[in-house]
Design goal:
By secondary structure, the protein is of the alpha+beta class. It contains ten helices and six strands; from the N terminus they run H-H-H-H-E-E-H-H-E-H-H-E-E-H-H-E.
Length: 424
């Protein structure tokens, strides 16, 4: 069985750089994933949002700004001059939240920041999957271009041979037209695949945070992936979606605790100085307390607490829905892997040898004058189609493995959990 990645690597390695151009270093899958984690613009933006969210909890540690008041007493209505007033009052006040309220608000901020952090991991898992898909897609496109580049000279030699046979009178005139039509069709298909190579390069560059037109070096064989012995259990343990919903539950529970803490009263303290012109002044003091459980106000707080309790239950219920979706994704990916491997094995061991044999028979029969040249052209196209199908089958295995990695939540590409079965 031919290896898609190995063929792409060899083909890229054999290609010599054009005069005046520097060779580009090979790009491994691990390097591509690491570069995407550090340079993808969307992940960079999400990390900046997380950095901003981390600063929010510190805001809850401080008291509200104090208030300063000045009052004028007994200001006669017959004058606009405040100096003629009988008394002046200068006051300062400070609100003091109830016991534990600042700590609960800080905890809500910390839980919100953790949610923001988990969102980065969630999006990173999706982006890494896109990188894997683009990497394999690029390798497939390059492999297919190599296949066409190999078959075009073969068809040209057949064209030259049939032209000589027609000139010598050993073949019909219409035999000389068929190879030219087939060659034009083959070159058109090769142009399509070359465009796909450029498209996959642009897609991969975008995911890596590079300039879209930057050259990408040769792809190299991907290190054999591994499947955990119990992929569902591993996925439920480390998938970013599970970590995200756990963080959301913690945040909603912290908000519920904060609301319940609002039943405790807040305090207000203040003091000042009373100035009376021509007389001795006097100090003033003020203290106050809120009554959150007043009969005419506690209903609103009870309603907010009940609403938040329902939010906690809703997020907890969503966790089970997410877990169920992860189980389905892992199972579906395993089915795809098995089917892709069977198809790749069938194409490599059955389809390719039979088509190659049929092409050799058609070419020999035509050379002996026992078969029309159309059989040779059809055999050549069938052989090329089988080669492309084989490359696609190999790529489908890689695509399916990438889907499994996404379903498991393998954000770190080189992480390997214990008790794994090595893939062939």
């Amino acid at each position: 069985m031919r290896c898609l990645m190995l063929a792409a690597c060899l083909a890229s390695g054999l290609a010599q750089p054009a005069f005046g151009q520097e060779a580009v270093e090979p790009l491994t899958m691990i390097d591509a994933l690491g570069e995407a984690l550090s340079g993808n613009p969307e992940l960079v933006a999400l990390r900046r949002e997380y950095d901003a969210a981390r600063t929010v909890p510190a805001q809850a540690r401080f008291l509200d700004a104090p208030s300063f008041d000045a009052q004028v007493w007994a200001w006669p209505v017959t004058t606009l001059n405040p100096i003629r007033a009988d008394m002046y009052m200068l006051m300062v006040g400070q609100a003091l939240p109830g016991r534990g309220k600042r700590a609960s608000r800080e905890l809500v901020g910390e839980r919100s920041a953790e949610v923001s952090q988990r969102q980065v991991g969630m999006r990173a898992n999706d982006i890494l999957d896109e990188v894997r898909q683009a990497y394999v897609g690029l390798a497939l496109a390059r492999e297919t271009v190599v296949l066409y580049d190999r078959q075009i000279p073969v068809l040209r030699r057949l064209t030259e041979a049939v032209t000589l046979r027609v000139a010598s009178g050993h073949a019909a005139q219409h035999d000389a037209v068929q190879p030219f039509v087939a060659l034009s069709r083959l070159q058109a298909e090769a142009i399509t695949w070359q465009a796909r190579v450029r498209s996959e390069e642009a897609r991969l560059n975008t995911l890596l945070g590079r300039p879209v037109s930057q050259r990408i070096g040769p792809t190299v064989p991907v290190t054999a992936a591994s499947i955990p012995s119990d992929p569902v259990a591993v996925a439920l343990e480390r998938h970013p979606a599970m970590a995200l919903v756990a963080a959301e539950i913690a945040r909603e529970e912290a908000e519920l605790a904060r609301l319940e803490g609002e039943r405790r009263p807040d305090f207000m303290v203040g003091g000042g100085y009373m100035l009376m012109p021509g007389e001795a002044g006097a100090w003033t003091a003020r203290a106050g307390i809120t009554w959150p459980n007043a009969p005419w106000s506690r209903g609103g707080l009870d309603a907010r607490i009940a609403t938040q309790a329902l939010r906690v239950e809703a997020v907890a219920a969503r966790r089970e829905a997410i877990a169920n979706a992860i189980r389905g994704s892992v199972y579906d990916a395993q089915i795809r892997i098995d089917a892709a491997r069977q198809r790749a094995s069938l194409v490599a061991t059955t389809t390719l040898p039979h088509i190659q044999h049929a092409f050799d028979v058609a070419r020999t029969a035509y050379a002996a004058g026992h078969a029309p040249f159309a059989d040779v052209i059809d055999g050549h196209r069938a052989m090329l189609a089988a080669d492309v199908e084989n490359a696609m089958a190999q790529a489908e295995v890689a695509f399916a493995l990438a889907d499994l990695q996404r379903a498991i939540g393998a954000v770190q590409p080189d992480a390997a959990p214990a008790h794994q079965e090595q893939l062939p």
